[in-house]
């Protein structure tokens, strides 16, 4: 039996060899010792040693614990960037379709770096700290690409005497943890004076957690309520341990993170989105802010605005299978009369719903929810349906 | 492992005994002795196979009893997969060649194909595993077996690793 780990799509046996013999080249996060202490099954993920799961729970148990109580995920591998200068907003809007001008200080947004064809270079969360400061969290797998993209585009701005300076936080400088689940915030509240009841979904503020100065952002990658906390590297362990004192909170790894985000209908860069697809095809048209559509001055604007107006040929959809083998990345989607109409970009068994969930790209005429189609797994067609995403209702803490 | 070595040792000693016994029985007729020796060895082999598991490089195991091979996945494979949530096993009556992909196991985080270590016709599949796949994690060498085959080429087993070689193979993987 050859075991393909879906999270890295590589043969596990080889990864383990790498993991043990090649530790030197994989970076350790500030929580490396803590992962070892709690029995984390460590693997190389995007160049960082991170736990797939911990010895106390299976991936599905950890997934369900997150949905019912709360979990801490080490996401220190993600690239944290601070941008400052009075021209930081115009610069950032020149590479993303986000409306930072229209956002208030302390609010955050999901957005994308776009190439000139409207393809997605990376997806990221940007926080407007102030008119002169931004805080960005982007993918570890795109770390080098993102860095050079930000450096190159900002240099062009600086040549025009614009004021922008960029600080990339190295993993040795800052840690980042995601605390997710219905009991996450109440447990953080015990450790901070910062009132969290008015820290709504996609807002961010500085605050002290367990006596450590942190940035707390109400966001996440699980569909649950929760926050991400940016912490000075040397104190990341202290804050994490303080949270773990509660029985409501346990550590969770990359395994649960992947199945949780899939149920929440959230994209994984490299699987569900990449430079070859536009936000319109990726069913992320809402990322093109209204003001920006009018101005039409973001990269790939011509293509993207035309797609919004005239439509596209393929679209990202959810795919649901009540039974059978899960469809994984690469599985072909077929119409009932056997023609290939798309492909799966990620999929897994759904611990919350039973059966399987997947997402993928499908020809426009088949995108309607409940359309009956087939998915080809190991040369066998199995029935499935186009489904609404998120598969599991999101529980974000939104201002009513 | 220790037991299998002891059994192997005993086997060697008794084989030598059997050879001389055969010679004596056949009054020094070398040809007859050879034939009956082969006969005895065949049963010896069956006897010892019964006690031993053989492994593939892809981490399947097979145990043989009276020409029927029981197939499963090793502890290493089970741990690599994590909690199995879906098992697809070959149907009874299917003719399988060694190395054929004949089933699939899926966990939340990983997918694995099962390859048959030996050739033969499927005589049984473990329906308990189909209904509760986590049995594979709980008992990969006993209750979590996957399917049984009537061996069509029993000699294929010689190409597989025995417990000792498999243990060495695993050590080298790390």
From TrEMBL, chain A:
GO terms, molecular function: aminomethyltransferase activity; transaminase activity
Main subcellular location: mitochondrion
Residue stretches making up the GCVT N-terminal domain: 31-290
UniProt cross-references to InterPro entries, sorted A to Z: GcvT, GcvT/YgfZ/DmdA, GcvT/YgfZ_C, GcvT_C, GCVT_N, TrmE/GcvT-like
Binding, substrate: 228
Example of a GO cellular component annotation carried by this entry: mitochondrion
Location of the Aminomethyltransferase C-terminal domain: 314-392
Biological-process GO terms, alphabetical: glycine catabolic process
Domain of life: Eukaryota
Protein name: Aminomethyltransferase
Organism field: Pieris macdunnoughi
TrEMBL record, chain B:
Residues where N6-lipoyllysine is found: 109
Subcellular localization(s) per the UniProt record: Mitochondrion
Entry's Gene Ontology BP terms: glycine decarboxylation via glycine cleavage system; protein lipoylation
Function: The H protein shuttles the methylamine group of glycine from the P protein to the T protein.
Alphabetical list of HAMAP family matching this protein: GcvH
Subunit structure: The glycine cleavage system is composed of four proteins: P, T, L and H.
Protein name from the UniProt record: Glycine cleavage system H protein
Organism: Pieris macdunnoughi
